[in-house]
Amino acid sequence: METLSTSSNNSTKTNKLTTYERFVIPTNKDLQAIQAYSRVANTDDSTKTWMNLFNSYREAANFTNPLELLDDTTLQEQLCQFFCGVRKSGKKEYAPSSLHVGFAAIARGLSDIFYPNRIINIHDKHKWKRLHEIFDGRIKQIQDNQDTSCKKTDALEMCEIKTILDSPNIQTDTPKGLTYRVWFWLTLLCNLRGGDPKRLKNSWIVLNEDHSIEVNIPREKNNAGGAKNPYNSGRHNYIPPDLPNNYSPVADILLYQSKRPKNCKTSEFFLRINTP
């Protein structure tokens, strides 16, 4: 890099710096190096994976015209078919969140391919209206059909779960410990994520006659799911009755509910701990 330098006839010996000496002129190599900082390796890998998948689908569907030569109408139709037809190995459905990642990855890939000759931004809901309607409908279809009660792979090993449950910090003899324990039980047994426990309603947790518990989490009324919220789907969870001489999630949850003030007006299940 070369420093911009200008001389001034009015410069003094005590003030040699000029107005322009704070700037530098970057070369093309400098600009490319700085641009590279904006790239994230995992993001690039995701883009490559989904673009390869899209191209493989185009080949399987006998779409022979090169991608770069497609007009917007044809490209949109092929994208609609792709998001309706793409499956994992074994023809299993992708999770809505995975398709959401795929949409963003393909948007990046197409933008890179067509730039600078054409600006392709499939996030534009007005220009790519049919694509967004198809994609949104596909997400909702999967959300309504998926088995949300099936248990996904635990991030914790059984020994780690036991260590947590045996910790003195989440025992039932203190309000904080009881809250932490019930929070952990519901998160673990109902596959809750993120802020799901916070929005649980007391009425959603129902004790059955056989002393099992059902936790029914409806889809939020103000959020219809689909592409705007790939995680938003109704959930119906079952917690079996407690076994003798074992951990007792049902008893812990019922104990927490029994501590609920009779005059409580809020509908939320988890309440703030009332400390003197």
From TrEMBL:
Family matches, as InterPro entries: MAVS
Origin: domain of life: Eukaryota
PANTHER family the record matches: DUF3504 DOMAIN-CONTAINING PROTEIN, POTASSIUM CHANNEL TETRAMERIZATION DOMAIN CONTAINING 1
Protein name in UniProt: Uncharacterized protein
